[in-house]
Amino acid sequence: RQPNDDGLSEQDCVEVRRAYGLPAAAVGPARLASATFAWNDRDCSTANYFVCERLQTDEPLEDSWLPECNRTVILSRNQPKASVSSPGFPRQYPDNANCDIDIIASSGYKIILDFEELVLEDEPSCSYDYLMILEVRSNDSSSFNESVASKRLCGDWSSKLKLLRHVSSGSRLRLRFSSDYSHHYGGFKARVSMENVMQCSDDQFFLYNNSCYLIVSYPEVGWNTSQQICESTKANLASVLSAEEETFIITTIRRTSDYRTSALYWLGGHSTSDRREFVWTDSSPVTYLGWPPGSVSKSRKEEDWCLGVRWAASPASHLPSGLYWTPRP
């Protein structure tokens, strides 16, 4: 079981060479030369030249990991995954390390830890070198000071990494790594991701970005009555704050069984008292604009206007037919 077929065995060190010696029973020249240097397993007591390596500067290894020792990892819908590891990984971690890695996910999400490696100094009480997983007591807390220990890990888990999978109870998690003054090992590396655990209380609602949306196709009523019906379910007419949210609402409307191209669906936008601009039901300004070209006339100041979405033929040569914002009295 040798890395190369040289007929020898029990050689535990690696050398690089171009010429190879053959065993006595081999037929042919005593030595063969290759075009380039290649690895060869060799008896560790063999007298050879050797190659040394050190860091570019004379500074100790510890200085190279200090800037990244304590850090914060923020997970979001745009970046739902990350990787965390012990200082210096994949090299062995240094002595006297004390590192906190704070992981923060969006509200309504839980954090998942999947370990790819964990090899620390083994000790029954994990008091020498260890990795501690701490849960924040409450998601309402913006501080990690109220965190409590969930797991304390040490030893070699290479053959049972799946058992280390951890799902947080909330949207915040702290990893605390500590090593003592002696004996350093391979350390740890883990994949971090988040999963949405929010569910709408009613199956008729559709979940998106921590909010629940209800598409009401009957009865057809005015904007004020629509808002009153929404308020009766402890909701409001929907605000649209981004292109992604608009796409979700329009796609959900078109997927409903009662969808008709002639129907208008009210949103939460309405004109201000001076009819100069639109605001949402909470009086916040409409900052994201989804108007198609030519749909809003500045001369319409004689009455209040409300915002809806309705199917329209292509409003411009570069736009397809579909659901678009439309003002209605």
TrEMBL record:
CUB domain sequence ranges: 69-195
Cited Pfam families: CUB, Lectin_C
InterPro entries noted in UniProt: C-type_lectin-like, C-type_lectin-like/link_sf, CTDL_fold, CUB_dom, Sperma_CUB_dom_sf
Domain C-type lectin: 208-311
One GO cellular component, as annotated: extracellular space
This protein's record includes keyword Disulfide bond: yes
GO terms for MF: serine-type endopeptidase activity
SUPFAM superfamilies noted in UniProt: C-type lectin-like (SSF56436), Spermadhesin, CUB domain (SSF49854)
Keywords from the named record: Disulfide bond
Domain of life from the UniProt record: Eukaryota
Full protein name: CUB domain-containing protein
Annotated source species: Callosobruchus maculatus
Organism phylogeny: Eukaryota, Metazoa, Ecdysozoa, Arthropoda, Hexapoda
